[in-house]
Amino acid sequence: MSKNLGIKIKELREKGLSYNQIKEELNCSKATISYHLDDKGKEKVKNRNKSNKNNSLIKRVWEFKNKNVSSKTRDFQRRNGSLLNNKQDKNFTLGDVINKLDGNFNCYLSGLKININDSSSFAFDHIIPSSKGGDNTLNNLGLTSNIINSMKNNLTVDEFIYYCKIILEYNGYSINKNGEVLK
Q1: DSSP string covering the chain, please?
Q2: Domain boundaries, the chain
Q3: Could you tell me the pLDDT band of residue 170, with boundaries at 50, 70 and 90?
């Protein structure tokens, strides 16, 4: 039975290996090495995770970056014999998202104001849906209200607007040239 990673890290360090040498030997990150060698490492991680758990924006960024392609998309791709797109840029940070939003916490589709302190009120939308070739990059991230995101589902923005127009017209509304909805 193989020894756990923490024990292996400690043994290699006792043999005088540097963090870089341990990293190469065990194919792990320096943060992992530090976690196992620093007496306070585990406590620091525990406190950071506890702090981040309560930050809804951090939670949503993590969920967006690590979102899996839906099972229907995977099944569709398998049926066509193609491989899943692994070109996912997951290297953006919370700071990158905040810079992109630039204090504009409104739904990019409806303009509705979003309370980013209430994680149930918003979602990060794939502007180009994953099912249509969209990726998990910062450029493909849009802030939306949860209800609008649910309505958009896997439609492109143009498709979503088209179907909204059809629904309005079917229910007796018309849209004039200025974009006003009239009854």
Answers
A1: -PPPHHHHHHHHHHTT--HHHHHHHHT--HHHHHHHHSTTHHHHHHHHHHHHHT-HHHHHHHHHHTPPPPHHHHHHHHHTTPPP---------HHHHHHHHTT--B-TTT--B--TT-GGGEEEEESS-GGGT--SSGGGEEEEEHHHHHHHTT--HHHHHHHHHHHHHHTT-EE-TTS-EE-
A2: 5-52, 56-182
A3: very high
